[in-house]
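User: Batch of two.

Assistant: Item 1 of 2:
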Amino acid sequence: MQEQGNQGSPVPPPYPHPIIAREGWPFLGIAGVVSLAVNFFCGLMWALPFWVITLFILQFFRDPGRAIPDDPQAVLSPADGRIVAVEKARDPYLERDSLKISVFMNVFNVHSNRSPVDGTVKQRWYHAGSFLNAALDKASLENERNALWLQTRSGADVTCVQIAGLIARRILCYVDRGAALERGQRYGFIRFGSRVDVYLPPDAEVKAALGDKVFATETILARLSGHG
């Protein structure tokens, strides 16, 4: 069952473009200029497909502010999308048994990635790989991916993995080992359809179910038990 946490007050955006993601401005600028040029020289009918592309780029790179649930033990969704896996699995990065929750993003979701917990980045791994449909289970181990090991203040270990998809060709991650992240803090972006896997301690209490529609920062995926 999907759970929305108690809504706290919206946090100030930690980056300078809170409505349209900074990653989208080059694409939006080029598309806008082309659309205007075709519109001016050839007329609206010829320019209409280019305006449609511009609007698609605009919606793809939207990046609205989000409110953070008050619960400090909550594991928040790192991305907008749909839950495609809630299962016991082996964390391939920390070599441990874990609870795995996966969020699949289609091209109409917001693609900004946000930290699921308050914690310190203990390690970061990048793996080149394939570009299979990110909704498939094997995408977790075969696709291009970037993983962060986050350790909370209470000592819980959380692994958050950005995974490229069938169309996605660029994973962006702006933090590295030693960085301190807060719940809901923006740390990366994946362009054009992808997936994020979260590996949690096996005793975490699941709050989201297969098929749920989730929203980055605002949806609680699980709750951590006491650690440390």
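Item 2 of 2:
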Amino acid sequence: MALNPNKDLKKYFSIHEVAKEFGVAESLLRYWETEFPQIKPHKAGRNVRQYTKEDIETIRVIYNLLKVRGLKIAKARELLKSNKEGAQSNTEVLIQLREIREKLIHLRKAINHIDVDSLPDEQQ
């Protein structure tokens, strides 16, 4: 079965794809499964893990708590257990802020490359 390159149409993702998306080792994802009961990938034949989009969003929240915010596993587990919606919305806000930051950096670079002398007089 060939991999579908259009990620919007895919139902399941391999552990390799998920690890690559987050820049972590596959073994780390398997370890997180043992530490966080919220991560429950479907296991196909020969225990091949198949992650859904929901699984990936849960991993995104855990990644944010552990790698971005620097929390210990026990604290992240406690936060997820007591306030999953809050942790998830914080992660979504951080993702949006990073995207806005990237756009602003791109705009600044574009502005810095504009040659003011070549603009018509009314635009200077």
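The chain is about 60% helix and 5% strand.
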